[in-house]
Design goal:
16% of the residues lie in helices and 34% in strands. With 314 residues, the protein is an alpha+beta fold. It has one domain (7-223, 275-305): 2,3-Dihydroxybiphenyl 1,2-Dioxygenase, domain 1 (Roll). Strands 2-3-4-1-13-16-15-14 form an eight-stranded mixed β-sheet. An eight-stranded mixed β-sheet has the order 6-7-8-5-9-12-11-10, covered by helices on one side. The longest helix is centred in the last third of the chain and has 13 residues, at 228-240. The protein starts with 6 loop residues before the first strand and ends in a 10-residue tail after the last helix. 44% of the residues are buried. Bound molecules: zinc ion. Zinc ion is lined by residues 10, 12, 220, 222, 256, 268. Residues 10, 12, 220, 222, 256, 268 line the site of zinc ion.
Length: 314
């Protein structure tokens, strides 16, 4: 059976302001801003993409920063935590760094043989840093963060579900995931070659409060597929599974299909090509406001409506 799903591609969340979002993800976490564009469905709002040097699939955290957006509530039927992988030896460095910028975190916890540091971004978005030596990817360094200590990309995402079976059935029977571990109320699945960047954790929360969308909540999670061809194949499988899936949408840096999983979280399957160097040289990624060609005639008007942002490293 052809591999149609490789693991995670990106996670997209909502924020309440562009500059403080940039400050957190590039300034503190040290990710690279790999694309500064607009929400193609709401061109008065940025779409900011952060990742490793090239914005590889499995490293890409993206945001729609709506100025002044009311905070949401983390809860059931949501992707509640997005976990990044860090080298085990850098756990102390990260705790010091978070303290330095008054970012609160919980005491590190053991989970499935790894150590997890739980924190929130400036909008209350659930973030985890997972210390692991089982990840060979190279992080993006800067003048303050050594590449050997840097975030290497996603480790996992956590979905909080009232009923776990329908989502597990979708992931295993349609989206080519395998259940690999279970601990307490948490079930871990992986896809493709497995490991960091391919894990989906499902936490059973039969009586939890429902999440509410707003700043500091995740909008959707995207899984990676190799090509338009594999996307067409997985699209047919999703449709045969009885899910209502959209036609292919051109997102300039990837092509996307969307559908809602039974627990209520919005899923996307995104192609790896063409990637972020489609309209910007690799060394310049994220430096200019990039618009899809159909918005170029309105560039002046769009630019004047966006808050200027600058990329700092703290
Ligand atoms: Zn997306």
């Amino acid at each position: 059976m052809e591999q149609l799903i490789n693991g995670l591609h990106h996670v997209t969340a909502l924020a309440s302001g562009a500059q403080k979002n940039v400050d957190f993800y590039t300034g503190i976490l040290g990710l690279r801003l790999v694309k500064k564009t607009i929400n193609f469905d709401a061109p008065d709002v940025y779409h900011l993409y952060y990742g490793d040097e090239t914005g590889s699939p499995g490293t890409i955290m993206t945001f729609f920063p709506y100025a002044g957006l009311t905070r949401g509530r983390r809860g059931v039927q949501q992707l509640t935590y997005t976990a990044f992988s860090i080298p085990s030896a850098s756990l102390g460095f990260w705790m010091d760094r978070l303290s330095q910028f008054n970012v609160a975190y919980r005491k590190p916890e053991k989970r499935l043989d790894e150590t997890v540091l739980r924190l929130e971004d400036f909008d209350g978005l659930g973030i985890e840093l997972v210390a692991t030596d089982q990840d060979g990817r190279v992080g993006w360094g800067n003048q303050r963060i050594d590449p050997e200590k840097a975030i290497r990309g996603f480790h996992s995402v956590t979905l909080q579900e009232t009923k776990v079976e329908p989502t597990i059935k979708l992931l295993t029977e349609t989206l080519q995931h395998r259940v690999i571990a279970e601990s307490g109320d948490r079930i871990r699945l992986e896809a493709g070659k497995g490991g960091s960047g391919t894990y989906v954790d499902i936490v059973a929360t039969p009586t939890g409060l429902r999440g509410l969308q707003g700043a500091g909540t995740v909008h959707h999670v995207a899984f990676s597929t190799d090509s338009d061809h594999t996307q067409e194949l997985i699209r047919s499988r999703i449709e045969e599974g009885g899910y209502h899936v959209t036609p292919v949408v051109d997102r300039n840096y990837f092509h996307s299909i969307y559908f809602r999983e039974p627990g209520g979280v919005l899923f996307e399957v995104a192609t790896n090509p063409p990637g972020f160097s489609a309209d910007e040289a690799p060394q310049n990624l994220g430096t200019e406001l990039k618009l899809p060609e159909w918005f170029e005639p309105r560039r002046k008007q769009i630019e004047s409506g966006l808050e200027p942002i600058e990329v700092n490293v703290f």
